[in-house]
Write a structure and sequence with these properties.
This protein is mainly alpha-helical. It folds into two domains: 42 residues, no CATH class; 31 residues. It starts with a helix and ends in a 7-residue tail after the last helix.
Length: 91
Amino acid sequence: MISFRLLLQNTFRKRGLKFSGQTIQSLIVNSKSKNVDNKVLPAKLLKPKAQYDIPKYLEMLDSSSETLLGVFGYTKNRVCEEALNHDLPPM
């Protein structure tokens, strides 16, 4: 599996942009795309109404939640159940 960071670096190279030693702001737009150039885009290249890959971000959130809370007995399923069964606090 190719990392999103490597995909971004490839996009930067193709467009003649520099990327080494800096933080790259990006958005996963279609993680399942067969075209690697359509999976993730640097923020500099996003159009105003760019869509993002909600299922992929939820998958990443599930995975990181399990990593952080696993020591307390939480699994991906339990994290999802807990999140879906509680109201979010007002912002």
